[in-house]
Amino acid sequence: MHTPPQLTELKARLREIDDLEMAAALLNWDQTTYMPPGGAAARGRQLATLGRIIHEKRIDPAIGRLLDALRSYEESLPPDSPDAALIRVTRRDYERAMRVPAAFTAELYEHTAASYDVWSRARPANDFMAVLPYLERTLDLSRRFAEFFPGYEHIADPLIDMADYGMRAATIKQVFAELRQGLIPLVEQITVQPPVDDSCLRQFFPEAQQWAFGVEVITALGYDFSRGRQDKTLHPFMTKFSLNDVRITTRVDEYDLGSALFSTIHEAGHAMYEQGIAQAFEGTPLASGTSAGMHESQSRLWENIVGRSLPFWEYFYPRLQATFPDQLGNVPLETFYRAINKVQRSLIRTEADEVTYNLHVILRFDLELALLEGTLAVRDLPEAWRERYRSDLGVAPPDDRDGVLQDVHWYGGLIGGAFQGYTLGNIMSVQLFDAALRDHPDIPQQIGSGRFDTLREWMREHVYRHGRALDADDILRRATGRSLDVQPYLAYLWRKYG
Amino acid sequence: MHTPPQLTELKARLREIDDLEMAAALLNWDQTTYMPPGGAAARGRQLATLGRIIHEKRIDPAIGRLLDALRSYEESLPPDSPDAALIRVTRRDYERAMRVPAAFTAELYEHTAASYDVWSRARPANDFMAVLPYLERTLDLSRRFAEFFPGYEHIADPLIDMADYGMRAATIKQVFAELRQGLIPLVEQITVQPPVDDSCLRQFFPEAQQWAFGVEVITALGYDFSRGRQDKTLHPFMTKFSLNDVRITTRVDEYDLGSALFSTIHEAGHAMYEQGIAQAFEGTPLASGTSAGMHESQSRLWENIVGRSLPFWEYFYPRLQATFPDQLGNVPLETFYRAINKVQRSLIRTEADEVTYNLHVILRFDLELALLEGTLAVRDLPEAWRERYRSDLGVAPPDDRDGVLQDVHWYGGLIGGAFQGYTLGNIMSVQLFDAALRDHPDIPQQIGSGRFDTLREWMREHVYRHGRALDADDILRRATGRSLDVQPYLAYLWRKYG
Question: How far does Cα A344 stand from its chain's mean position?
């Protein structure tokens, strides 16, 4: 069967939308990397304009007509075929976009840029009051967004569904409850032990060498610098301007060796996912990771399952020692390995260990639900944050800088759906790694000799290349034989830390 | 009289166009500064899409209707009022844009991105054959562009008019003839002398210190880094994403102290012009320098009349010596001053001295006319280039890298109108500087003590703030009492070099 002309026209329209989205992504990237302070006001307007035009093009009734005309062609195709997937995902996006008025999208873009700008100054100044009115408006916008999708069970559901298609608040609450049940005894077992000495990581490590070592590591993992680059930002992230220009950012703390290194590996994990998507999907809605959770499964897999494993450091530690001979020359591998895997009750999510990390996520998820439900006022958020840290993690932030201001998410986007993906990703990362191990039991040995291609190519084959052509649950079931399952993840944590 | 609603609507439409143009400018900036090689193909498509949408919006018949409806309001205003200028310039742009089909603009954007990409690799490889087919297509596009404006006297006129409104090939030929007549005896007088020793500039000057010194200089001149930044590119340029985000780029040669320094001052001159435009014009077609020539008058004024003057270096030379004590500690100011003003028959336009610089420009202008007229084939351009260098400058490039491949203009834009602005700018720069001196005879003394505010504020008052509200000729006549006049420029050159 030949490609129907409607599909050709649909693809041209989708490419135009993609071009504009990529332009907007570059404006965002520049805003957080190189833009001088004077540029902020105009950048907000520019992003608002692009957002409005993108939205207008997404909801162009011509797309609806093309999708209708393509229904019989779609039904004639195997559901797995790229065209069927493209039409299916485009229809899903179109039906979603149709519900959100263009004026709302423009308002949201402009507000988000302004809010990000205020936050980027408020966080170092420890000034929650500066962001308060912005955050209140963000909550209002988030509720209004959810209201465009009536019939939800929980007001967070439409927001969660945007990030993790098919997920709902009720499901996640259940998953998180099962996880918490398994985590609490593990955290208790670990934290009654004397604390691990991680002072080897707290020496002075000059930025340039840290940067170079991080680049060496992610190049070995398979991040392709000819199709990407790394820059500095306040909050590390991955973004892309095409499948062949996938960029990452990081930050460097010269007195904490783990901070930049693991964030670099984390973002490279995201980026390898995007770089690994089938080139045929370029310029279409399929050319993207399939969900927030699946994306995190890859960042967390490379950061933790690989990057904090013993075989990985059997290979890389001598190289790290050669980079920092004065600081690490006399530190044995085992001391270093224990230091980078130190479990402790701490304040900062992005620097938390694997075990307690999920407690940071679960409390944010709960706070998001409470804000959206209206049972928690934005004004009371800092205190609620401290309270949950005290009860869940046994520590409370001395200020908002390291408390409620620490993550960019609520200040650069909506409230709701922002955090659950991290823990869903942790859970999936172990399911996927276990499946790769079943196919290639020698992966740990390969990692120990600096070879990452078998694991990476397995991920490319089973996860990356599909882009959004398969949903997260499809990928999991095909690759591992099961849907989302907390138990392998708990088993991994108990094995490593119990 | 109240603002008519049509003007409010017009401004909203112009702002939208401006937002998209600024987004496209950022995509271009990124392409030449930070984009990894893999990004090139998609970037070309993205720029083509933005170019097409911008063009569609520029030629929206609604703009024509608004302009018609505003005619009586316009006639009721003093011609100098901002609204009158806005309507006048918008009408001029609209009538021009209406002549160029959207598909042509998209083709041009895409071709330009591809051509730039090829050139950026072909130049270091000295590979003219690689760019030949691109340049042939560029010439074809340039001719087709001119054909959209029938009734021209010379096929280059529509292209020249785009860059220097009101100028034509015939006028420029006349101006250049008068200039050449004055220049030739000066060049001959100088080049019979023994050559100046500029070896003090040819030592090793590490990039980081060169960069820092350049930043110190342009900060003192008045370039505002809180509304701009400087990055590295192959070919230095100025670009902007709003009046409060005006960026410059430079390149550094560690064995040529003058290269980065004077290009930095040159681009800062362009940028101060844009940073000095009235903020009320932001987001409108008035928020831009008024012509290529007027823009160059500012870059060349700061680079040459100020930056290569003795008072300037009486102030800065001790600072430069402190930055490079080993290299310059024993070099007297006079030796350095003579070195940076060395006149010689040379190959590279951007590094040419003030006197011979115009010969580089005039020959390019003549080659552009010949290409457009069809009397010179693109294939024969390298040889024609060598021939003209031999006859006009007495030197011939050993290869195309330092010959016909040296300037980005023809490889990143159209042929025609690309170069005359440099020499028009030189001429105007002296007219404007002389007028500033008449108002403030102590400017040279101020420069000698590191004060640039009187000169800069004079330029802001008489040139910068007007943006495109005044044409180049208006600015010249109001600020200096005369239209374009070669004689003050020749007098300046004879005074300084004769």
Answer: 23
